[in-house]
Amino acid sequence: MRRDVFQAIADPTRREIINMLAHHPMNVNAVAENFAVSRTAIYKHIKMLIECGLVVVTQFGRERYLEARLESLDEVSAWVEQYRKIWTDRFFNFENYLDELETKKRKTGKRK
Question: What is the pTM (predicted TM-score) of this model?
Fold first, then answer.
């Protein structure tokens, strides 16, 4: 079952794992050492990241190295971007409204 990338980034532990692997590949044990939870819990997080396509595993001898594949985050970026435009427009409209209020305030202040 392929998981949704939004499920992967919903958890702060998984986001931290992605952040760590974005800088350089690490073996599974090195990742697990950075968290105060069981290795089993970290393995479950890693499994979900693999299922979402955000992490790939490469075997080198006995070691399994994890590497981030951040292209999958493009889906998240595209989703956020649609709302960025809406909020940018709202802030622009709000700023214009405040400017209009300030202009009216100055005009009524000058009449007195």
Answer: 0.73
